[in-house]
Amino acid sequence: MSGKVAVFYDPIYLGHDTGMHPESPGRLRHAVSHLKSSSINERLLWMPPRQAEDSEILLAHLPQHLETVRVLSARGGGRIDLDTSVYPDSYQVAAWAVGGAIAAAEWAWQRGPGSFAVALVRPPGHHASSGSAGGFCLFNNVAVGARYLQRQGAERVLIVDWDLHHGNGTQEIFYSDPSVLYFSIHQHPAYPGTGSPEEIGRGPGRGYTVNFPVPPGTGDDDLAWIMSSVLMRLAAAFRPHAIAVSCGFDGYFADPLGDLRLTVEGFGRLAAGIRDLAFQQQAPVFAVLEGGYHRDGIARGLERVLAVWSGSPAELAPPTEPGAWVSRVMAMIRQHLADRWEVLADRGQLDI
Ligand SMILES: [Zn+2]
Taking residues 254-267, what's their average pLDDT? Predict the structure, then answer.
């Protein structure tokens, strides 16, 4: 389970020029220059992404949403909501961000189990729903990547979203779909306000959305416990053919937009959990950059994640007991999901 990690990046991602907005070109520029000047660089395979076709964007979006972004962009830009704007180059850059997710997904899928690819793209995607942009996101990169892989033969895809915010767009896109299991750990309360444990999917998708909200101040140990006690169990029962990661770094303790307390090593532990899952399920992994607004938090968090996925030693190292809030949320999750996922009813530690 070691080898080079493919990193899909192009300077075109700096072209969605948001000015003084926290989701700025500078956050990605800094992360890329940090990776290229650090010793991790020799374990990275820098790969060119591509622009997604409209037909690919439509794998996760309604035609009128694509048209809204395209027309607004062609007219020179405009505001979509309080947080989200379109600039003259945004349609093209967002189509390249989707293409980055597709390229990373395809690379990992073609190389098979144990391969890891990361799309370092912007704008981010997980708040974009099938019909609308929002929360700095125009198109849902990870959702299109997952749908694309399903067309390549990955019947079941697990999406793990460790961005500090709930990925309401990703949840909406797959809410009725039992072929994609969406698992999110996010701060509560925080934007966008969704992601309660009661939101578990609908119709045939009931049980395939799993939300684990955590309070401000939550850190490395609790996230490792959640990954070990909830995600590992679900994945063992779901048996994904591919694993996607909505990889946000706004959980970093110094992030200006969030109040979680993850350290750089905490991201390494989460990456170790994903690596263990990939090994256990014999599934390839593709990750897509989401949020993260502290420049060193993204740069150093990414460096650590990439180190673990390219073979550096790291352990998930969950504590035996979670904090009091996490225990309470776990009880709610059992209440809502234990009838669908027998593995969640068991209170013992999962030995993987
Ligand atoms: Zn976020």
Answer: 98
> How many other CB atoms are there within 10 angstroms of residue 163's CB atom?
27
How confident is the model at residue 3, as a pLDDT?
86
Provide the percentage of residues in the chain whose pLDDT is more than 70.
Answer: 97
For residue 215, say if its preceding peptide bond is cis, omega within 30 degrees of 0: no
Query: Which helix H or strand E contains 147, and what residues bound it?
Result: helix 141-152
Among candidate residues 119, 120, 125, the one with its CA nearest the CA of residue 103:
119
Per-residue model confidence (pLDDT) at position 351: 44
DSSP-H helix ranges across 203-310: 220-226, 232-238, 264-281, 295-309
DSSP string, 15-41: GS--TTSSS-HHHHHHHHHHHHHSGGG
Q: Look at residue 352 in the predicted model and tell me its pLDDT.
A: 42
3-state DSSP call for residue 72? helix
**Cα 288 to middle of ligand 1, angstroms:** 12
pTM of the model: 0.97
The Å distance, Cα 267 to ligand 1 centre, comes to 15
Is the pLDDT confidence value at 123 over 60?
yes
Distance CA 273, CA 281 (A): 12
- pLDDT band for 1, please (50, 70, 90 cuts): very low
Domains of the chain, with CATH numbers? 5-344 (3.40.800.20)
Dist. CA 103 → ligand 1 center (Å): 23
Closest by Cα among 180, 55, 48 to 107? 48
The candidate with the shortest Cα–Cα distance to 341, out of 229, 245, 188, is 229
Q: Over the range 209-235, which residues count as b (16 or more CB within 10 Å of their CB) and which as e?
A: bbbbbbbeebbbbbbbbbbbbbbbbbb
Residues with CB under 5 A from ligand 1 (ion): 163-165, 248, 250, 291
Q: Which residues are catalytic?
A: 127
Distance 345 CA to ligand 1 centre (A): 30
Distance (Å, whole) CA 207 – CA 324: 24
The stretch 64-82 carries a mean pLDDT of 95
In terms of Cβ atoms closer than 10 Å to its own Cβ (0-12, 13-18, 19+), residue 112 is: exposed
